[in-house]
Structure formats: structure tokens, C-alpha cells
Amino acid sequence: MEIMLLIVTLNFVCTLVVLWYITPTRISNNQRVILDTSAIMDGRIAEVVKSGFVPPVLIIPRFVIAELQLLADRADHLKRERARFGLRLVQQLQDSRNVSVKITGHEFSGTSEVDKKLILLAKKFKSPLFSTDYNLLKVAEIEGISILNINELSQNLRPITIPGETILVKIVSKGQEKSQGLGYLEDGTMVVVDNANKYIGKKITVEVTRSLLTVSGRMVFAKISKYVSSERIRTNKTVHNKSKNKPMNIEDKLLKAIDNSI
């Protein structure tokens, strides 16, 4: 009788162990990520979650939520609104079908600083840290903690321009050199164009000469393309209309033909 009871008990224990290994709710260290205050207030984590580019489990410490509540009550207007937005975002993530949100109550004696607690928690869980706080990310890197920096991700995902490619850009200001003009692509990439200072406020077609990745982001250097942009065509049209009485040369006739086709 005792032998039968022992066999039944062993079978039950083995069944539990097998179920523990095959159950989909079992969480490994690389299946979860810890969110800090800056990542929640930034808000872009919601869109990244929808795309499926984060681990399936988000860990939010209670001391992070407490910091959000403190900022929502006592900070300046901008931070207060951001903190309130962050608290709403936590609820939004909890309702998401794409991830599971775990609120952890882990505390660490000897420190009241949120950043230090996050470092200790990341070490304890052996999980990466999702943050936009530059200083915190540097400390985490020194401590050997895996980091997910959405700012770095957004920089790396910007379209790459190659030398010889032509792009249309609006010149908005002068560059560091007097002859240079500055413009920006739709993703915020700065474009430095040689000899374009006289085209401020206009869109021109430029040819990429080189592209550099700097600490502050990607920069594109270009020169004015030999192709005429639509903005310059409109400018030439205005000049042409002012000189109706002058005899038209071959270039004027060509511009007139272009004007009539627009």
C-alpha cells in the first residue's frame, strides 16, 4: 500500500514538473523587460508593443508608479501632464492583448533613488531595462545590464541615403558656413546643402554626397542637383511673367512650354 502511494505521489510530482516546463505562462529572463519612468512618460512603448518588437512581459515596479503619481501631483505643468499621460498608458498596456503587464512590489533597503532600485531590480531579474534616460542607460551599460533604448532604435530605423541619390528638401536656414543651407527630411534628419543659402524658404532638389551617423543623429551632406525642382520652376514662371515684353530666347521658350504643361 505504501509503495503504491509513493508511486502515485511520484507520478503526480512528475506531471507537475512537465506541465511547468510546457506551459506558455512560464517566463524566462529574456521574455521580460523592465520599464522605467522615462519610458512610460515617453509613450512610444505603446506603439512598439503593437509591432511585437518587445518581450511578451512588461515589468513595472511599484516605485516607478509611485514616482509617476508624485510627478502628477507636484511637478511643473509639462511634467505633470506627462506623468498623468504615463499613468493612463500603464492602464492601456494592462488592457493590451499583445503583452502581459506585471506590477512588482520589490523594494531595496539602503537606497531611495529610483534609478538605483531599477539597476538592482534588473540585476535581480537578469532582465533588460527599457528606458530613455541617458544617464540611467549609461550606468546600466557599465553594470552589464542589457538595455533597450527607443531613441537609439528610432535613429537606426531612419531611411539610409546613399551618395548620388537625389532628394527634395526645403531649405529653412543658413548653415555653419555662409554658403550652406540647412533643411530637414520628414524623419528629422538634418541635410546640409552647399551653396544653398540663397534658397531659404524654397524646396530644391539636391544630390547626396555623403551621410554620417553622429551622437546627435544622422546627418546628410548634399549639393544642389542639376535637376530643376518644382519650387524653382514656379519661381522661374514668376520671373518669366514679369518679362513678357522681352524677346524670348530658346531657354524662355522652354520655360513657357513647361509653364503651360503645369
Order of adjacent strands in the largest pleated sheet: 3-2-1-4-5
> How would you name the CATH homologous superfamily of the largest domain?
5'-nuclease
Label the structural class.
alpha/beta
CATH-derived topology of the largest domain = Rossmann fold
Beta-strand content:
15-25%
Please tell me the overall pLDDT. Answer: 79
Report the major sheet: 5 strands, parallel
Percentage of residues in helical conformation? 40-55%
Counting DSSP E segments of at least 2 residues, the number of strands comes to: 10
CATH class categorisation of the largest domain: Alpha Beta
CATH architecture title of the largest domain: 3-Layer(aba) Sandwich
Q: Uncertain segments of ≥5 residues (pLDDT<50)? A: 15-27, 228-244
The gross shape turns out to be elongated
Per DSSP, the total helix count is 10
Our Rg estimate from Cα atoms comes to 29 Å
Give the domain tally.
Answer: 3
Distance separating the two termini: 98 Å
What pattern of helices and strands is seen along the backbone? HEHHEHHEHEHEHEEEEEHH
